Structure to design on (230 residues):
């Protein structure tokens, strides 16, 4: 079964450092999403791409977070500088189109900022 | 703005009991999608079901069933004859269909504990 690949699986970083996460969606999926899930909460959408274009980044803290999907395939989410409150699970998801039966989520990157 | 409320933070039942997880949503759109996901301790989100706002038929899949009622803005999930493997956090989510942005709005989740 096709999967959404994410790396690294775990990341520990010191506050004020830069950190990056990578996501490779299911082949052929045009839509890619990044979500942040704080412990004990539901995931919250950070950014949505349609191919290489940003569709929605209204919840992305743009002073420190950036996301790109240069060739419309894999994507990178960066935080610089990291803050203690950024500790969370970062989940990537993809879908073929908006009528797809369900989004497929990756296993996530667990970030701990110390 | 859209909102999903899962009022039950944690539910604990004994194996083989039936259990219902509640989900209430708010949206101004007439066309939207509702989802349920399961998140086991390993952390990945497992897709369970998607319903669109025009399909109010209840659905059954094995031990799982879903009751969608637009009149009360609810999309409840029932597990019949629960098993220990059903222990997980369950999330209800909503996606509005208007425009190009269709990210999910999740509830806070219900932690389901099935005791042997």
């Amino acid at each position: 079964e096709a999967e959404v690949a994410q790396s690294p699986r775990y990341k520990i970083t010191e506050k004020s450092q830069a950190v990056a996460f990578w996501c490779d969606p299911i082949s052929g999926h045009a839509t890619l999403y990044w979500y942040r899930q704080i412990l004990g909460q539901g995931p919250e959408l950070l950014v949505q791409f349609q191919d290489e274009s940003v569709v929605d980044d209204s919840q992305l803290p743009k002073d420190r977070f950036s996301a790109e999907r240069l060739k419309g395939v894999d994507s990178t989410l960066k935080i610089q500088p990291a803050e203690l409150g950024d500790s969370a699970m970062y989940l990537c998801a993809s879908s073929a189109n908006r009528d797809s039966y369900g989004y497929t989520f990756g296993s996530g990157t667990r970030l701990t900022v110390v | 703005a859209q909102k999903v409320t899962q009022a039950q933070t944690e539910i604990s039942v004994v194996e083989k009991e039936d259990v219902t997880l509640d989900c209430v949503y708010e949206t101004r759109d007439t066309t939207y999608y509702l989802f349920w996901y399961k998140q086991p301790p390993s952390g990945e989100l497992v897709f369970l079901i998607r319903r669109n706002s025009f399909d109010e038929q209840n659905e059954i899949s094995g031990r799982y069933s879903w009751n969608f009622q637009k009149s009360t803005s609810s999309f409840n999930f029932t597990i019949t004859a629960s098993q220990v493997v059903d222990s997980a956090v369950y999330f209800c989510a909503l996606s509005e269909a208007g425009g190009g942005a269709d990210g999910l709005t999740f509830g806070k989740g219900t932690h389901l504990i099935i005791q042997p």
